[in-house]
Design a protein that fits this description.
Oligomer: single chain
Strand content: under 5%
Distance between the termini: 54 Å
Order of helices and strands: HHHHHHH
Structural class: mainly alpha
Helix content: over 70%
Shape: elongated
Length: 123
């Protein structure tokens, strides 16, 4: 039997209580069993980001978006990462993507969009 789901859950627990390195290994194990498991892919990106490997995390989320352009959670993670890295134009583009897709509950995307517009105009 495949225990990809259990490895992902263990990774989430480790992420919250044991550190991102251990979580990263557990998410990788889940993905070795089920490479298309999107939750483990997202979690892997979050672990990479927490480990300070922001460019690798961006690559993970960008690959997800190429395969699943409607994945709102990955779009939000991309916005957050780009905002943290002061990549305001990229964050702005992803925020506009969410708004264009008409996710009216994405208040944080709209807030990030406003902040990024401010940075672009003042920068």
């Amino acid at each position: 039997p495949s225990y990809y789901y259990a490895y992902n859950l263990l990774g989430k627990i480790s992420f919250n209580y044991g550190g991102p390195e251990r979580a990263y290994n557990l998410f990788k194990k889940a993905l070795s069993l089920k490479p298309d498991y999107i939750n483990a892919r997202r979690n892997l990106g979050l672990a990479l980001s927490r480990m300070g490997k922001h460019n690798e995390a961006l690559q993970v989320f960008e690959k997800i978006i190429k395969e699943f352009p409607e994945d709102r959670k990955s779009l939000q993670h991309l916005i957050n990462l780009h905002t943290q890295l002061d990549n305001t134009e990229q964050a702005h583009q992803y925020a506009e993507t969410i708004i264009r897709k008409d996710y009216p509950t994405e208040k944080s995307s709209r807030n990030n969009l406003s902040k990024n517009e401010e940075r672009i105009n003042n920068g």
